[in-house]
Amino acid sequence: MRVAIIGAGIVGVSTAYELALLGHEVTVFERRSSVAEEASFANAGVLATGCLGPWAGPGTGWKAMRSLFEGPAALRFSGLHALSQLPWMWRWWRASRPRVHRANQAALLRLAQFSCERLLGLTRDLGLEFEQAPGFLVLLRSERDLKARKTTLAALQDLGVAHELVDAARCHGLEPGLHRATALHAAIHFPQDGVGNCRHFAHLLKSQAQRLGASFRFDTEALAVAAGRAPRVELAGAEAASFDAVVVCAGVQAQRLLSGVGVSLPLAAVHGYSVTAPLRHVDGLPPPGPRAAVMDDRHQIAVCRLGQRIRVSGLAELGGRLDDIGAAPLRRLYRTLDDWFPGAAATRDAQHWKGARPMLPDGPPVLGASGAPGIWLNLGHGGSGWTLACGSARVLAEQISGREAPLDVSGLGVARLR
Ligand SMILES: Cc1cc2nc3c(=O)[nH]c(=O)nc-3n(C[C@H](O)[C@H](O)[C@H](O)COP(=O)(O)OP(=O)(O)OC[C@H]3O[C@@H](n4cnc5c(N)ncnc54)[C@H](O)[C@@H]3O)c2cc1C
Fold it and tell me: Which of 38, 174, 237, 395 is deepest in the core (most CB within 10 A)?
């Protein structure tokens, strides 16, 4: 089949690779001049199956509401634009109900586990190096923080996720760079999770897809798509082209394209930040910073090692502008870095970044047929697109090829969002 993919973030690139591997003739249209230039550019890099869950969960609605009136919170509503997201918030609130949350959590976990297996397989088979390191610790500062995680721990147990509750001494053994003066009560250790450079991986997989014959057309914006037996893509500054299938992997911009074919998705941009800086080495001392990935559970901020650099990332803002990198959110990232790894990074040379997570209100992405003939969807991966990309791409490639999906895909289709 001749398949067009719109968007070359981590999701589009992975989809291109899987479709090319199954023998399809793939063309990727990307408006930017390279792959992974938007949400996939400088994300935290955490590959987490274990502590991954929908952001909408029992109690999170109230927590977010409180964040309107209280001090720093992990999720914030920014500016008047956030008010236009009220319908999205309502759906998010409804998805927090325990039964709905449990089903979404199970769907996400199935996809995440499959995705990490696929990522491992590709890494091994293709010999890929993308600054990966194993191990993920969720740091709990106090007994109260641990108590707040009791339900999560019970769910991990029920879902059979490999994890271990470790005390502070063991945390310091696993991550010797952790600052001993910062109060630490315990941590949840996910030995099979870890960290890797998403953008770097996207570049490697793009080359592999090209080797299989996929073509990438950069600086080429898709203006519209038309559904049908031979779906079409209208392009800026180039002739429209017809295909046998079109896959929309356009992240937060997807809705503009989908409206034209009558598909409406409750997709919101949830902004987050990252700071990336070189590790500071001192002769004679062991390397500073984390070995792999840790997350400060209270502040929902991750501190990760990416090769010879350290990346601090987190925060979630609904509303606001992508090009407005405020000083206050960055200060919060720097404070967390100082709490856990003081002096570990050469912050004078730090790069600051703000990205938009393509977020559906209930958590899982949307995979599969859109309902409009010939138009397929692989988008809405929210805060876990790096973790979920390889698995989502494989599922979609199998579906387009008319083969059975390699896992139970209930809860991942578009029907749930109508
Ligand atoms: C601060 C932050 C931290 C994160 N941390 C993690 C993490 O630790 N682990 C994890 O798993 N995930 C993480 N994520 C989430 C992850 O980065 C995203 O889910 C993922 O990058 C989404 O990938 P995507 O390909 O769908 O979107 P994108 O990377 O945004 O790609 C979409 C592409 O489509 C292109 N496009 C859009 N419209 C058009 C058009 N009309 N024509 C042509 N091209 C078009 C865009 O230019 C873009 O390149 C984080 C996100 C943020 C913001």
Answer: 395
CA distance 3 to 408: 24
Residue 331 clears pLDDT 80, i.e. is over it: yes
Per-residue pLDDT of 172-215, as tens digits, reads 999 999 999 999 999 999 999 999 999 999 999 999 999 999 99
Query: Cα(317) to centroid of ligand 1, in Å?
Result: 16
Q: Go through the chain and tell me how many residues it has.
A: 418
Q: Which residues contact 121 (CB under 8 A, 6 or more apart)?
A: none
CATH 3.40.50.1820 fits 46-98+126-195+268-359, yes or no: no
**Whether the CB of 52 sits within 6 Å of ligand 1:** no
What is the three-class DSSP state of 270?
Answer: strand
Annotation: CATH topology of 2-40+200-263+363-417: FAD/NAD(P)-binding domain (3.50.50)
pLDDT, tens digit, for every residue of 362-418?
999 999 999 999 999 999 999 999 999 999 999 999 999 999 999 999 999 999 998
- Most confident range (mean pLDDT) of 50-59, 75-84, 88-97, 175-184 is 175-184
Q: Is there an atom of ligand 1 within 6 Å of 274 CB?
A: yes
Q: Whole-angstrom Cα distance, residue 139 to residue 296? A: 5
Domain definitions of the chain by residue range: 2-40+200-263+363-417, 46-98+126-195+268-359
Does ligand 1 have an atom closer than 6 angstroms to the CB of 365? no
Contact 412, 368 (CB under 8 A): yes
